[in-house]
Structure formats: structure tokens, C-alpha cells
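FORM 7B - TANDEM STRUCTURE REPORT

SECTION 1: FIRST PROTEIN
SEQUENCE AND C-ALPHA CELLS:
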Amino acid sequence: MVDGVQMVHYDSNSQRAVPKQDWMNKRTDTQYWDRNTGILLVSQQTFKAGVDILKQRFNQSGGDHYIQYMYGCSWDDETGVTEGFRQLGYDGEDFLVYDMKTFTWIAPKQQAVITQHKWNSDQAGLVFWKNYISQTCIEWLKKYLEYRKSTLKRTVPPTVSLLQKTPSSLVTCHATGFYPSGVMVFWQKDGQEQHEDVEHGETLPNNDGTFQKSTHLTVTPEEWKNNKYQCVVQVTGIKEDFIKVLTQSEIPPWADWDNSGKGILKT
């Protein structure tokens, strides 16, 4: 995933790694997917064997059990600060955590100590992962960001809509489909920015590489009918402000949200 958006998917049935974003499909070749398919196939086999081993350590005989493996890195393009992480979980709980300060494994559970000692004695492996997370991962992150940027416009304007499920509920201003992620979504009352009774949501990624953000206003129907309320959206790199004035016609009473954050109509 990059910035919360899935870009690659491995199907354990077909045993193939496939792109989930157009920008990944356009900027990578067959060798890339063959190489990653091979890596993930080995991981699938390793995790399957790992579940059997951990079931014995936890004295489990049946049922469904899971190994979760996560690693990644972050890069601040303004400060240059980088961070990384690597950890394994079993049945939803931490099993092993890679300490990025000492570059060694920590065992939160007694059942993990055997693996901790084995992996910490593998000096070549420790050096590999130290370099991979602190350097190689950052290099790939920058590549993926460039891949994504090259297939999107430099700036993409938002689609702005208003939603109120009932006359007594919050009024939501929802901006979606914009790029880059820098955005301000705020409410104005009679031309002045409204700070009270306003709740700001987080900027979230869409599956297509763009972003979305919502800001909620608590206001009575009488109040917004007697005053001019409007939602203003400003996106980094776009001079134009995107404004939606709060009127009855801008709030379809049958509107609702689906899980993707886009409006759907229910009849």
C-alpha cells in the first residue's frame, strides 16, 4: 500500500501478484510481477508452515489461525525524515516486533522467544533488513510516488457535495476526487469562517490515488435558512475555491454514503 491505497494484490488461489491501480500497471513490466509473484508465493508457503508451528507452541489443535506480517517505511518529502517498521502478529496479537533502534527482534510473548533468538543470531539477516527498511524501502516508496504522480494530473479538482440524513443531524460537506492531498475544507457563516460547532474529518485516500475529506457542521434548519452558510474547499496548487452554499436544494433527502466515500441515491 502507498498512502493507504492498495496497489498490489496477491491471490493465494491463482498464486499471482496483480496490480490494483492503473498507475502500477502502466509503469511496471512483466518481470516486476513475476519477481513479486515468486516472493509472495514463498511467503505463502512459509506462513502456512508457520501456522502449524505456532499452533503447537500455543497448544492449539484446531480452528482457524492467522499469521499477520507487516513491514513498511515512511518519508516526509519536506523534512526528509524517514521511519520504518516490521512486525509479525498471530491471531490478532503482536508476536514479534523489529526494534528499529537496535535492529533486533523483541518478543512480546513467551512463545516467540525461540524465534527471537534464532532470528537475532542471524547477523546477515539483521543487516539485510536494517538496510532494506532504512534504504531500499525508501527508494521504492519514492519510485511508487513518482509512478502515481506521472499518471495523475498535477492537480485534480474536487467534487463537493452536501449531505444531511435528517433535519436534526449534522450537515456534512464532502470533498472527494482531489489531488494532491493538501486540502482545507471549512464552513463560513455570512462570509466569516465558522469555528464553533464544526468537526473536521481526516484526509483519506481513494482507491484511484485521489483523496477525500469531510467537515461536519451542527446547525438548525431555522438558523441556516436565516443566514448564509457555505462550505469552502481549497486544494493545494489550485487557485480556485470550490464553494457549496447550504440550501435545501443542495441536500437530497434520500442521499447516503457507501463505503467508498462516494454518494449514492436510495429510492
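SECTION 2: SECOND PROTEIN
SEQUENCE AND C-ALPHA CELLS:
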Amino acid sequence: MISRAVGSEEKRDVHHCSFYEAIKPVKLCDVEGFDSLDDLLIAEITDAVRPAICMTERCDHTARIEPDQDQGYCEACGGNTFVSVLVLADLI
């Protein structure tokens, strides 16, 4: 949570995670053969490309893309909806 002073009041900005932002990392771990997101991140720390998953509701297509990608092209559904595991884990 980020907070900042606005006048004499404190305003809080809360990041609300969508259902798919929560469930897609779990699906990606399953596809990649890991028990947890931590295990996946540790195993992938030295690679130039990282596992990613399409964030579209009915598409679970996975691929390996640049670590900072948050709008990669999905060949399965055609959307710019691919997100790297590092972005999903809020590390980038």
C-alpha cells in the first residue's frame, strides 16, 4: 500500500489484485513444473527470458519472454496480454 500526505489528510492508494492476477501465477507454476512461485523465480533467476502467461480469461497459453514484458503478444489468442513471471510477482 502506498500512502502520501494530501493537505492535513493522508490519502491511501490501494492496489487491488484481480482474480486473474492472483490465479495466473499458480497456473504458470503448474505448467512449468514448480510447487511455488518462489521456486519458479529462484530457478529462473539467471535466464535471459522468463516464463510468462497470457492474462486473458480463457487463455492459459505460456511462453518465454523478456523479463520486463507486461504486454507481450499471445500467439494463441492474438492479444497483447502476455505477462512475465517477474511482473506477476511484482519484482519489476
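SECTION 3: OBSERVATIONS ON SECOND PROTEIN
Helices lie at 19-32, 37-43, 85-88.
Residues 18-88 form one domain.

SECTION 4: SIGNATURE
Preparer initials: ____
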